[in-house]
Design brief:
The protein has 117 residues and is α+β, with helices and mostly antiparallel strands. It is 44% helix and 18% strand. The protein has helices at residues 3-21, 56-59, 68-85, 102-112; strands at residues 25-30, 35-40, 47-52, 91-93. The chain has a 4-stranded mixed beta sheet with strand order 3-2-1-4.
């Protein structure tokens, strides 16, 4: 099993647990250059809000979009948008990535901005 298959297996296990709880989830995906965050409804049918380093408002303020500083900005932005949309409590879906580095920075920033996991 290669690295991507292992990550996808971990992600599937976590998502099945979140789905059984019918919880609204904060899903995170990262690439070498960008990080993406979405808040998805409990049934998984609708994306409520999203934020990423691809957005002009974030991309223009950063020198590089693939670091912890960028992830922190995305975390704050997704929390602000979620609270404005009426979502205050979410389940954190790290998509099989380790809770370390950029993923942790995004989660911590979202918590500080008012989201509850």
């Amino acid at each position: 099993m290669d690295k991507k298959q292992s990550r996808m297996k971990r992600a599937l296990k976590l998502r099945s647990k979140i789905k059984s709880l019918s919880a609204t989830r904060l899903s995170v995906h990262k690439t070498a250059l960008h990080i993406y965050a979405q808040i998805i409804s409990g049934d998984g049918a609708k994306t409520i809000v999203s934020a990423s380093t691809n957005q002009d408002s974030i991309k223009s303020t950063l020198k590089y979009t693939g670091n912890v500083e960028a992830a922190t900005m995305v975390g704050k932005l997704i929390a602000e948008k979620a609270i404005a949309a009426g979502v205050t409590e979410v389940a954190f879906d790290r998509s099989g990535f380790k809770y370390h580095g950029r993923v942790k920075a995004l989660a911590d920033a979202a918590r500080e901005a008012g989201l509850k996991f």
